């Protein structure tokens, strides 16, 4: 039995793979293009794992993807591959269109052609799981109820629009061709191994380096925060018991303003890594011009996940944030390699060309 994972060297994908091997010995084939956010050092512990195979590839490379599907015969494809940073989508949307829309289309077509040729029993068991975002739903007013699976799509950023488009492709491939797809829409993830352009790791590392802690606008934008390990466990539930053609919203039940998140980071650091001058990290908080089209509030209703799949997040925001901060404090070598870019050179020197292409025997 094999699972094919795309984008498995990124933040959520790598955490999923590490979590997977804590509970299963089923083969995973990890396909990743290794853009700036793909970091194989995160998966170094699996380098010699007999059930783990890495292949450097773009999900738009349909010939290679089709060959890998034929070679490894997976029972599921899990698509984490995506451009995900909203700021980057505002300044350079083309990469988001190419990866999130064109890439998903290409992957769906490869999966459909592979699925069409499977024996009847394998065909019924096959799943294509798409990892999406709550940002496809747009913004909520303070008094509005959280997003559920019937909420209307109203994306407001190029990133959100590209993910909404890919979600619609999955729906169409299910209803038109019968491909057994599953889509999950998650809230803001945080946790170990997150690339430090995202809010929480950026604030942790800036605080430790004595840099300003930049907060957009008034800092009162609200997000629901989901600890990445909770997300990984939810995805396993969806993969094993989700109904084809269905969407599942995955949230942490932790609505927080961006400002309060930064303040909580400061408060924990004050306790476990106080500044040498005795002052609080709160003094480093600064407010900067808000970004264009900044959604005011996201919130997720997990009633479907809870009722149908018996899933609830384990971590509160307080416990998850403390674990996250401690991980960054304990893994300075990983942090330094990401900050100075040496992880990119490490990939090219540590892995031979044949390794990057995967074992093709």
Summarize this entry quickly.
With 361 residues, this protein is an alpha/beta fold. The chain contains 14 helices and twelve strands.
Explain this structure.
α1 (11-23) crosses α8 (228-241) and α7 (199-208) crosses α9 (258-272). The chain has 361 residues and is an alpha/beta fold. It contains 14 helices and twelve strands. Helices cover 45% and strands 16% of the residues. Mean pLDDT is 93; it is low at 352-361.
Jot down its keywords.
361 residues; alpha/beta; Rossmann fold; seven-stranded parallel beta sheet; three-stranded mixed beta sheet; 14 helices; disordered C terminus
* Number of beta strands: 12
First-to-last CA distance: 17 Å
CATH architecture call of the domain at 2-190 and 226-252 and 298-313 and 341-357:
3-Layer(aba) Sandwich
CATH class of the domain at 2-190 and 226-252 and 298-313 and 341-357: Alpha Beta
What is the CATH fold-level name of the domain at 2-190 and 226-252 and 298-313 and 341-357?
A: Rossmann fold
- Spell the H/E element sequence: EHEEHEHHHEHEEHEEHEEHEHHHHH
Give the CATH superfamily of the domain at 2-190 and 226-252 and 298-313 and 341-357: NAD(P)-binding Rossmann-like Domain
What is the radius of gyration? 20 Å
> Largest sheet at a glance?
7 strands, parallel
Percent helix: 40-55%
């Amino acid at each position: 039995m094999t699972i094919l994972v795309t984008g498995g060297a990124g933040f959520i994908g790598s955490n999923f793979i590490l979590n997977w091997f804590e509970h299963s010995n089923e083969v995973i084939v990890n396909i990743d293009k290794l853009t700036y956010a793909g970091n194989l050092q995160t998966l170094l512990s699996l380098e010699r794992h007999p059930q783990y195979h890495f292949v450097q590839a773009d999900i738009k490379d349909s010939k290679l993807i089709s060959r890998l599907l034929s070679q490894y015969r997976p029972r599921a494809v899990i698509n984490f591959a995506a451009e995900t940073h909203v700021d980057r989508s505002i300044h350079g949307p083309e990469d988001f269109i190419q990866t999130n829309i064109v890439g998903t289309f290409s992957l769906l077509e490869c999966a459909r052609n592979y699925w069409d040729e499977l024996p009847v029993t394998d065909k019924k068991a096959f799943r294509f799981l798409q990892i999406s975002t709550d940002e496809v739903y747009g913004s909520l007013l303070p008094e509005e109820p959280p997003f559920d699976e019937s909420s209307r799509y109203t994306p407001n950023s190029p990133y959100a629009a590209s993910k909404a488009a890919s979600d619609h492709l999955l729906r169409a491939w299910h209803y038109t061709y019968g491909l057994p797809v599953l889509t999950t829409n998650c809230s803001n993830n945080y946790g170990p191994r997150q690339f430090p352009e995202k809010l929480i790791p950026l604030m942790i590392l800036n605080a430790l380096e004595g840099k300003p802690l930049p907060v957009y606008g008034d800092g009162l934008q609200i997000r629901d925060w989901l600890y990445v390990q909770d997300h990984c466990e939810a995805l396993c539930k969806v993969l094993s018991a989700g109904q084809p053609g269905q969407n599942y919203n995955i949230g942490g039940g932790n609505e927080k303003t961006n400002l309060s998140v930064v303040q909580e980071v400061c408060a924990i650091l004050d306790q476990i890594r106080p500044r040498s001058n005795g002052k609080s990290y709160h003094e480093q908080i600064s407010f900067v011009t808000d970004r264009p089209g900044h959604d005011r509030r996201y919130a997720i209703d997990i009633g479907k996940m809870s009722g149908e799949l018996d899933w609830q997040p384990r971590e509160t925001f307080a416990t998850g944030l403390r674990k996250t901060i401690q991980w960054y404090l304990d893994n300075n070598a990983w942090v330094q390699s990401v900050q100075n870019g040496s992880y990119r050179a490490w990939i090219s020197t540590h892995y031979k060309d044949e390794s990057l292409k995967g074992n093709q025997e």
